[in-house]
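Can you please make up a whole protein chain along with its backbone structure tokens because I've never seen that pairing?
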Amino acid sequence: MRLSTALTDALNEYRIFLNEAGRAPQTIEGYIRDIRLVLKIARALFGSESVSEIAPQQLEHILNSDEFMSVDSGRRSKSSVNRTLSSIRGFFRWASEHCLADKDATRSLRSERVRRSKPTVLTADEVRKLLDTTLQEPGMLALRDHMIILTYVRTGIRVNELVELDIEDMDLPGRRLIVEGSKDDSKRVLFLSNKLVESYEQYLWQMWLRYRACEGALFLSNRRKRITSRQVAIRLKHWCREAGIEEISPLVLRHTFASLLFERTHDLGLVQKALGHKDIRTTEIYSYVEEEKLKRAIESL
């Protein structure tokens, strides 16, 4: 069932609001997809024509309905339910603040309790093997991929931040990268080790020799255009196959950085700052390092 004109207009206005708030395009599309599904079910089950016609009891019914819970793989997971709930909370709060509804219909809804799973990470040996493999192949593209992987595991950068990096964002004397926050318009600083600075100096020299480039995108495709997130993911899987390790996504490299940093510092606050998390509860998934050590210690008693 299609949305009514009023619901469609509200959803479009909310998209504009999110865009002006500086949310990442992928984040916005995820929110809109979740909200549109709930609004479609509301119209199908209750005939809702506008946001103001959707009551808290109706939302609770929708989130427990077969129309919402049934997915191709079976039943929707708790984390998926919570993600949708987070999406519609933002939407209904915005609607109430912009006089599209008398009150926020999601205020009484509660999130499902979800045990955070241990993040997938590479071992130190796997990281070393991956990096060594990229150095075994000559050429600028292999060097570029080496630097991308090295940047991930030494800074914990987000993929959106990485592909938007420009040469001008580098402050090598100050040993730092200035990146555009993927969640909003703010900038954040990524600190670089001396070894990483040296690697970047060599990479920039090779870029100058190959492309005569001293400005613009830091990581270029073979067509000399800014590399995309999808290309990064494809190249990473290629190097995993070459190195003989299980194929991973760029997010696993970010998890690997965070886990190694926590293992070295035992400070979740530092990991939170390094990753750019606003809420330390997001960072707590890396505390599994301490839990694993505790399990081994108890086993040895």
Notes: The mean pLDDT is 85. The first helix runs from residue 5 to 20. The chain is about 60% helix and 5% strand. Strands lie at 70-71, 74-75, 170-171, 176-180, 187-191.
